[in-house]
Design goal:
The complex is a heterodimer of chains A (403) and B (396).
Chain A lengths: L32 H14 L7 H13 L4 E5 L2 H12 L6 E5 L6 H7 L3 E5 L10 H4 L7 E7 L8 H11 L3 E4 L7 E2 L2 E2 L6 E5 L12 E5 L2 H10 L4 E3 L2 E2 L11 H12 L1 H19 L5 E3 L13 E5 L7 H10 L5 E2 L20 H6 L3 E4 L7 H16 L1 H13 L1
Helix pairs in contact in A: 1-8, 2-8, 3-4, 3-7, 9-12
Chain B lengths: L28 H14 L7 H14 L3 E5 L2 H11 L5 E5 L4 H9 L3 E5 L10 H7 L4 E7 L8 H11 L2 E5 L7 E2 L2 E2 L6 E5 L12 E5 L2 H11 L20 H12 L1 H19 L5 E3 L13 E5 L1 H4 L3 H10 L18 H4 L8 H9 E4 L7 H16 L1 H9 L1
Parallel strand pairs in B: 2-3, 2-4, 4-5, 5-8
Antiparallel strand pairs in B: 1-9, 6-7, 8-9, 10-11, 11-12
Helix pairs in contact in B: 1-8, 2-8, 3-4, 3-7, 9-14
Classes of the chains: A alpha/beta (403), B alpha/beta (396).
Chain lengths: 403, 396
């Protein structure tokens, strides 16, 4: 895997790719296959493949303990876990849900599934996260719920949001999909608001193929959520809560998650190495700022996000095209933001100049199981190369565009 | 006749541990292990991976349908289908169906209109559908029950004549055919369940089938950005993905379908022969199909002829470790939230009420042997013979 010596060698101009196997921003952690098979044996021997089987029960117990929360309920995905949680706790008769625009690309669609209008709030430039100050102006007599969303590096101001929700008497949920391993001053993520929601998608910290889970300290909410994921049944032939559906986690996905959980401490150590490799090497390149993890608290070191500063000599779109051509699957960070996208459902129109500006600046770089420290060295060397040759590259790109 | 031979009254149960209702077919450990070592080697876990692609192709071939779109589960498949079909207002469906059929409408913001059923076939009563169609009704959701079919062609004619759309909850009907045409090809779309209790299992899972290219494109765009194919506008997306783990199991299950169907049929015939000897237990024959998966064994209990009410029989069997179920009880019109939201149906579905009071389901599938069928039928016969005494003791 040779790095480039002239711009003719760039894949975007017809040269060979830097990587044969794509380097993506998905975690794709591979737990120990023997452990996975060992967990599988439990449901196999009992002929119980889903519907609250042995692995789901064990997983819920272990995840509740891990997050230091009273209860954990697993789901078929983070998407439907969020939808069900909103449906369970949103104030009845109210119409709006406050959420950031600078977030997961399907978040507004989730609001549409639960028949609430997204009311998008700004974020803080320092954290890229919503805060009490950015949420407050969005609260009105129609607010049904605040969806607190942690950004993908570090956490949002949990205490501030909790205090605001309490002051306004509005339920608060946390989308903590990217914060499984994180802690804040208040302790481990997982015990705040009415409930916190996590994902087990293969691209996330814990790989369960697909899946999600919710942690809460509220006993009656835990019971309600567990019933809602199973059609609302509270017993045989007895539907006791409305808004049920099928959002159960199957036993195979639970076995996978258990195996991933066994590997978690090792994984975080591997992530830390990757992060430090990036940090050390990127420091030498002007115009790129790595988002630092807050090491005062526990962190997963999983996501690598950089800001392209004014000193970076290429556009972000151009940079991404050049990288993607080499099979470095860098992605624009939450771009476009949700309020800029067309929505065919009811929403509160938003004017968010800060989000608009931030949405142009950040980039997710490859991370996770399939990215080695050597890969990172090559990626950063490549960034250095395109930065050093930026004016000639830009010229070629312009010519290509004109043709 | 004495009651002392029944576990309900202290005897040893007929089965050592609970015999579940079915289907619970699953590949051997060796096949499971090999399939999953393959996934771990490929490190492709979800997002329309190679196994999901392969499964969709094989399902299309097997069902003779243009598009099979695999989903996380059948409920999510139904929810996606209502959106993809652009349904509005109200949808007609039977109340004698699983909760998910109506819940998919509620999640999509639509209102169910409950139609009564035919007492003999248990399927939606097509003669009553027409009178329920008004200007707010955008579709009929046919439900193919018990390995039979709900007259899809006649429903199509009615839907066409009335200018409404038609689709099917075919969760029970994988592999079944109507006049040689596989279920999957009727209406605008048909939704299958690959839940562990169904003949084709992905543990959880399902697929939506259609011959309409545009509908398929919308479904794929709603499901997720991976495997979305041709981009088309949809109102809202969802996570409806099937993982490689689910697809791996479903692929093996599809391979096993002929053997599993045969096994079901053999067990069904055994039940059929022996139940004939027991007054008051009327076996439901999968009707309207030229081929059935025989994945359910359902009877209605005639309390007068049999001698015991259905619920007493269920208690009696439960004590023997036979998991018999009163399926769909008490009917969706009597379940939350429809019992409060739509009280007009409480008095308008007499056949549904009658079947909810008499319907019983017995175990059939992977864990049921010919010998267990004999043992179950023996309990049933003895229960009939001792019904007077059982009744007297049970009432105490």
């Amino acid at each position: 895997m040779a790095n480039k010596s002239s711009i003719e060698e760039l894949a975007i101009f017809g040269g060979s790719r830097l990587f044969a196997i794509p380097k993506s921003t998905s975690n794709l952690v591979r737990p120990d296959v023997e452990k996975f098979l060992q967990y599988s044996k439990a449901f196999f021997d009992q002929h119980q493949y889903t519907n609250n089987g042995p692995n789901v029960k064990l997983l819920e117990k272990r995840l509740a303990a891990f997050h230091q929360a009273e209860y954990c309920i697993t789901f078929c995905s983070g998407f439907w876990a969020i939808a069900i949680a909103i449906s369970a706790v949103a104030l009845k008769g109210k119409t709006e849900i406050v959420m950031p625009s600078f977030t997961y690309r399907r978040m507004a669609d989730i609001a549409a599934w639960v028949n609430l209008k997204p009311h998008f709030c700004e974020v803080e430039p320092a954290t890229l996260a919503m805060s009490a100050a950015t949420v407050r102006p969005c609260i009105n007599e129609n607010t049904a719920l605040i969806l607190g969303v942690h950004p993908i590096v570090n956490c949002c101001d949990v205490d501030g949001l909790v205090a605001l929700a309490k002051e306004k008497n509005i339920p608060l949920l946390f989308d903590s999909v990217e914060s499984v391993y994180e802690s804040t001053a208040g302790g481990k993520v997982g015990g705040s608001g009415k409930a916190e929601i996590f994902s087990l998608h293969a691209s996330k910290l814990l790989n369960g193929f697909e899946g999600g889970y919710i942690t809460t300290n509220d006993a009656s909410l835990a019971k309600q959520l567990a019933m809602m994921r199973g059609f609302g049944f509270g017993g045989i032939d007895n539907i006791v809560v409305p808004d049920g559906m099928n959002a159960k986690l199957n036993e195979v996905h639970a076995a996978m998650t258990l195996a991933s959980l066994d590997d978690l401490e090792d994984q975080v150590a591997r992530n830390r190495q990757r992060y430090y490799t990036y940090k050390r090497l990127l420091a030498a390149i002007p115009g790129i700022r790595l988002l630092d993890f807050d090491e005062d608290h526990q962190t997963s070191y999983k996501n690598i996000v950089v800001e392209l500063l004014d000193a970076w000599p290429l556009t972000r779109a151009g940079t991404i095209s050049i990288l993607n051509a080499e099979k470095i699957l860098a992605r624009a960070y939450y771009s476009p933001p949700l309020h800029q996208k067309p929505m065919a459902y009811a929403h509160v129109p938003a004017d968010l100049p800060l989000t608009d500006e931030l949405a142009e600046r950040f980039l997710n770089l490859p991370c996770g199981h399939l990215v080695s420290n050597e890969d990172i060295t090559n990626i950063v060397k490549f960034l250095e190369f395109i930065s050093a040759n930026a004016s000639r590259i830009s010229e070629r790109l312009r010519e290509m565009g004109e043709k | 006749m004495t009651t002392t031979s029944f576990a309900l009254f202290g005897a040893k149960p007929a089965f050592d541990k609970p015999l579940p209702i079915g289907q619970l077919y699953f590949p051997s450990w060796e096949r499971y292990e090999a399939a999953f070592r393959g996934i771990f080697e490929r490190q492709y876990y979800t997002n329309q991976g190679p196994l999901t692609e392969q499964l969709e192709e094989k399902l299309q071939q097997f069902l003779g349908v243009k598009h099979a779109i695999c989903v996380s589960n059948a409920t999510i498949g139904l929810m996606m289908t209502t959106d993809a079909m652009g349904l509005t207002g109200k949808v007609i469906l039977p109340a004698f169906t699983f909760a998910a059929s109506a819940q998919s409408l509620s999640w999509a913001g639509l209102k169910p209109v409950f139609c009564d059923i035919d007492l003999n076939t248990h399927q939606i009563d097509i003669d009553r559908v027409e009178s329920l169609i008004d200007e707010e009704v955008s579709a009929i959701m046919g439900v193919n029950l018990w390995g039979g079919a709900c007259k899809p062609k006649a429903l199509q004619e009615l839907a066409d004549a009335k200018g409404v759309q038609l689709y099917f909850d075919s969760a029970h009907a994988f592999g079944c055919a109507v006049d040689g045409v596989k279920i999957a090809n009727f209406g605008h779309a048909e939704v299958f369940s690959f839940h562990a209790t169904k003949i084709l299992s992905a543990t959880e899972g399902g697929c939506v089938c259609t011959n309409d290219d545009d509908l398929a494109a919308r479904l794929r765009n709603i499901r997720s950005s991976y495997g979305a194919g041709r981009p088309v506008n949809v109102v809202r997306t969802a996570n409806g993905r099937m993982s490689e783990a689910q697809a791996a199991i479903a692929l093996m299950s599809l391979e096993d379908f002929p053997a599993n169907q045969k096994n079901n049929e053999v067990l069904y015939r055994l039940y059929e022969t022996q139940l004939k000897e027991i007054p008051g237990l009327h076996l439901v024959i999968p009707t309207g199909v030229s081929f059935s998966n025989f994945q359910y064994l359902v009877c209605s209990v005639d309390e007068r002829e049999f001698g015991l009410p259905r619920d007493v029989l269920i208690d009696l069997l439960k004590a023997e470790n036979v998991v018999a179920r009163r399926y769909f009880y008490p009917g969706l019109h009597r379940s939350i939230p429809y019992v409060q939201e739509l009280p007009q149906y409480l008095d308008s579905l007499p056949n549904t009420d009658s079947l909810c009071a008499s319907c019983i389901q017995f175990p059939i599938g992977a864990l049921v042997s010919a010998e267990s069928v004999e043992r179950i039928c023996n309990i049933l016969l003895r229960a009939h013979q001792a019904s007077t005494e059982i009744r007297a003791r049970h009432e105490k």
